[in-house]
Amino acid sequence: MEIIQDYISITKAKSDLLNLIRRIENTDDAFAITKNGTPEAVLISMKKFKGLLETIDILSDEQAMKSIRKSIREANQGKWVEFDKVFEQ
After folding, report:
1. Half-sphere exposure of 25 (CA within 13 A, CB side)
2. Which of 14, 37, 44, 61 is spaced 20 to 30 Å from 83 by Cα?
3. Helix or strand or coil: residue 49?
């Protein structure tokens, strides 16, 4: 997975901001904005931003991470529950 699709100078970003926003609206593209050739900021879609915040929230939740790690260990050990049994009443 490539994180940054393009590096754009701040001067070009200022003059082309509307087109950049149109490009990221329906994609997972991310653009690094550079100042004097050094990346200083990133432009991403709101959808991707919200996804990153949700990921951070999950990763910072100790109970959720404990449960995820346990599930991964069990899956690696071949401990699976059949789909029909999960929703049995």
Report:
1. 7
2. 61
3. helix
SS3 of residue 28 by DSSP: coil
Alpha-carbon 57 to chain mean position: 12
Q: What is the pTM of this model?
A: 0.69
Q: How much is the pLDDT for 56?
A: 95
Contact 31, 9 (CB under 8 A): no
Encode pLDDT of 46-85 as tens digits.
999 999 999 999 999 999 999 999 999 998 998 888 778 7
- Identify which of 65, 15, 10 has the alpha carbon closest to the alpha carbon of residue 42: 10
Please state which CATH number belongs to domain 6-44.
3.40.1620
